[in-house]
């Protein structure tokens, strides 16, 4: 027991665990000895029953190629843990082939016990996702991990991921305490109940926060707060909840978006349990959400660039498996938001705490959560109003801050906006009062050029900083939009109606020649739907930014019939799927910059017929509202 305990303290990441936990782990270890050249695991075949901690001797791990040659050969010695990545991220199958050398002694930890450690200790779990992320930076390693033979198996789980609901999962029972419970007593409850999260209730029985091992470390021990203090003074919040009828992928995206590690599960207005991020991720094998977690753990701009370069492969694979394009958009957006957040945090760490509260917002397709693989930067900064003597200091900081953020995003692969709609442009980094004046002038003194130029600012979405600043701007816009704004909506509608679907008089697809190909611009084809749905959303004061979410809200308000809603949703996301797949193929197979031009000759007959029907739907959509917006609004 003593020898095993001392050994565990030398093994990464077991040294991260508390002493009392290590003692329990030491009791669970099973001693196994191997003779010369014992073949232990075969890549993608052997099911891992647990993890191996090498105490003495050597493991040789490698991939077999199609000629049965050993590739990416590595030798592991005392203190190495093999199998963690395989159990967590590879459907419990050994990721590599392994041979044990003569005189090898291994301490074996059963899979169930290993998983419990991962669920209970986030840093322990992160060690394996981070190691996998680092390994995937090696092109040869990544090639064998993502080989086509394994692809079908890897994404069987992702099919379930996008169709499986929260109600099908096993969630943990809630353990709660009152807001006045002393910290030491709360910690004792967590130990007794063997939970890593304790929820806090107020006097009315409402859950107002939660306490975790990390909360106690950061908010109590690190700050030398007395353990006699009530938990309401140290607890974490906000509380994030999800309904049992939501999908698993929605839960994971919500966790990444809100940065929470725990979700309360709600059914008919009652909390029925909770889910942890570690549990959800560890069950998703090769899903894109493990990749997103690896993005969160990236340490440099170069590493973030490599992560972004992997996105086209994920997009192509998801679409090829029939995952809905609106979900693929969300995956792209979540990766993009995560990268931007990492960049912002890095710049703040270097420049120091900002001299004022601020919100970093994204615009256009990124603001609508409809980002594609041909993307540039569209962003802006709003900071709180300050007294006269501080204004220049605050403005100077945020302009330098914006410059650095934009430069790093450009290095990662988000190119500078050709129109200059970026925070690094002094026009788009300003105080809240200045932004209110901007929006007011665009709405109250509109002309065609202004509306065309600044419509993208009505798709703004907060991703970092003080959400309250964006909330105040939205409240202001809500008030302004209740005023008579006929000319503004008129010009917005006129702008949207200038894009004509590419259909000839004889209902064939209208093309133009580019580089010897007969193409149409799919981005321009989608624009009328985006623009016209935005006009409706502004008219009805719907502040969602995503086109699909706007359509859903407008249908609920009676602005669109069920038939119109379904036809527009189908049309928009069919085009999105075609656009994303084309761009992914250009990047992966052609090693070319992605664009928005679709060669008609490369489409199947069915695709061509479908596109013609979609173009008719868009044309009918334009015609049906032309009179309403261009004639009646001015009256």
Automatic annotation (TrEMBL):
Keywords: CBS domain. It comes from the Bacteria. Signal peptide: none annotated. Residues 13-135 form the Cyclic nucleotide-binding domain. Residues 170-227, 235-294 form the CBS domain. InterPro entries: CBS_dom, CBS_dom_sf, cNMP-bd_dom, cNMP-bd_dom_sf, Diverse_CBS-Domain, DUF294_put_nucleoTrafse_sb-bd, GlnD_Uridyltrans_N, RmlC-like_jellyroll. GO terms for molecular function: [protein-PII] uridylyltransferase activity. PANTHER family: CBS DOMAIN-CONTAINING PROTEIN, CBS DOMAIN-CONTAINING PROTEIN CBSX3, MITOCHONDRIAL. This is CBS domain-containing protein. The lineage of its organism: Bacteria, Pseudomonadati, Bacteroidota, Cytophagia, Cytophagales.
């Amino acid at each position: 027991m003593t020898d095993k305990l001392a050994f565990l303290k030398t093994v990464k990441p077991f040294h991260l665990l508390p002493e009392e936990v290590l003692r329990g782990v030491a009791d669970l270890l099973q001693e196994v000895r191997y003779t010369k050249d014992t073949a232990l695991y075969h890549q993608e075949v052997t099911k891992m029953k647990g993890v191996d901690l090498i105490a003495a001797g050597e493991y040789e791990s490698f991939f077999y190629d199609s000629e049965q040659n050993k590739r990416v050969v590595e030798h592991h010695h005392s203190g190495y843990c093999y199998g963690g990545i395989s159990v967590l991220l590879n459907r419990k199958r050994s990721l590599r082939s392994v041979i044990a050398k003569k005189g090898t002694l291994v301490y074996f930890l059963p899979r169930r016990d290993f998983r419990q450690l991962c669920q209970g200790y986030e840093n322990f779990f992160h060690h394996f996702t981070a190691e996998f992320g680092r390994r995937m930076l090696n092109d040869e390693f990544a090639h064998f991990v993502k080989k086509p033979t394994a692809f079908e198996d890897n994404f069987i789980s992702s099919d379930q991921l996008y169709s499986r609901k929260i109600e099908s999962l096993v969630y943990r029972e809630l353990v709660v305490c009152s807001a006045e419970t002393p910290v030491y007593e709360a910690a004792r409850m967590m130990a007794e109940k063997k939970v890593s999260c304790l929820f806090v209730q107020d006097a009315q029985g409402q859950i107002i926060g939660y306490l975790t091992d990390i909360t106690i470390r950061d908010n109590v021990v690190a700050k030398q707060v007395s353990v006699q203090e009530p938990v309401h003074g140290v607890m974490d919040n906000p509380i994030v909840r999800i309904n049992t009828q939501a999908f698993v992928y929605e839960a994971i995206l919500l966790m990444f978006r809100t940065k929470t590690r725990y979700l309360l599960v709600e059914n008919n207005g009652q909390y029925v349990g909770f889910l942890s991020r570690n549990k959800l991720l560890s069950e998703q094998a090769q899903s894109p959400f493990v990749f997103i977690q690896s993005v969160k753990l990236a340490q440099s701009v170069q590493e973030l660039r490599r992560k972004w370069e992997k996105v086209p492969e994920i997009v192509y694979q998801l679409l090829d498996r029939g995952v809905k394009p609106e979900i693929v958009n969300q995956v792209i957006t979540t990766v993009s938001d995560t990268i931007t957040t990492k960049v912002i945090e890095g710049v703040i760490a270097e420049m120091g705490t900002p001299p004022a509260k601020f919100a970093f917002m994204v615009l256009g397709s990124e603001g609508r959560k409809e980002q594609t693989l041909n993307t540039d930067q569209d962003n802006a900064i709003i900071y709180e109003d300050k007294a006269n003597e501080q204004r220049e200091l605050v403005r100077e900081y945020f302009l330098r801050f914006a410059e650095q953020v934009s430069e790093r995003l450009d290095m990662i692969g988000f190119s500078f906006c050709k129109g200059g709609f970026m925070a690094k442009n002094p026009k788009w980094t300003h105080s809240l009062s200045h932004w209110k004046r901007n929006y007011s002038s665009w709405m109250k003194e509109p002309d065609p050029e202004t509306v065309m130029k600044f419509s993208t600012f009505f798709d703004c979405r907060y991703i970092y900083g003080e959400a309250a600043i964006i909330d105040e701007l939205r409240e202001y816009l809500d008030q302004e939009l209740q005023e008579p704004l006929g000319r503004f909506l008129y010009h917005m509608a006129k702008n949207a109606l200038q894009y004509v679907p590419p259909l000839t008089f004889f209902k064939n697809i209208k093309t133009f020649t580019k580089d010897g190909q007969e193409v149409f611009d799919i981005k321009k084809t989608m624009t009328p739907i985006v623009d016209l749905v935005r006009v409706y959303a502004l008219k009805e004061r719907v502040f969602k930014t995503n086109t699909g979410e706007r359509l859903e809200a407008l249908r609920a308000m009676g602005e669109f019939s069920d038939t119109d809603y379904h036809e527009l949703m189908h049309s928009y996301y069919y085009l999105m799927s075609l656009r994303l797949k084309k761009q992914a193929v250009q990047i992966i197979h052609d090693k070319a910059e992605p664009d928005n031009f679709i060669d008609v000759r490369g489409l199947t007959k069915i695709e061509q017929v479908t596109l013609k029907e979609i173009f008719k739907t868009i044309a009918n959509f334009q015609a049906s509202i032309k009179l309403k917006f261009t004639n009646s609004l001015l009256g």
